[in-house]
Specification:
Blueprint (H helix, E strand, L loop, with lengths): L10 H28 L2 H22 L5
């Protein structure tokens, strides 16, 4: 098993986690498709890049593993 035993996850929990990710990804594609029909592609691309940068910056500050 890939997961560490210290996490306390059984095989069912790992299955649920790995099933939820593609489900959320697929649902987000429908939402982005509807929004993409309303907005221009350049606004969608620019907004996505800005949102990704903000998430990465926030993760860098709040989830830093190096003291």
């Amino acid at each position: 098993m890939v997961a560490s035993p210290a996490l306390g996850l059984d095989i069912t929990s790992i299955g649920v986690i790995t099933s939820i990710f593609p489900l959320c990804y697929g649902c987000s594609k429908f939402v982005s498709g509807v929004v993409g029909d309303v907005l221009s592609p350049s606004i969608m691309l620019g907004g996505g890049l800005i949102a990704t940068g903000m998430v990465c910056y926030d993760a860098q500050i709040h989830l830093s593993y190096f003291p």
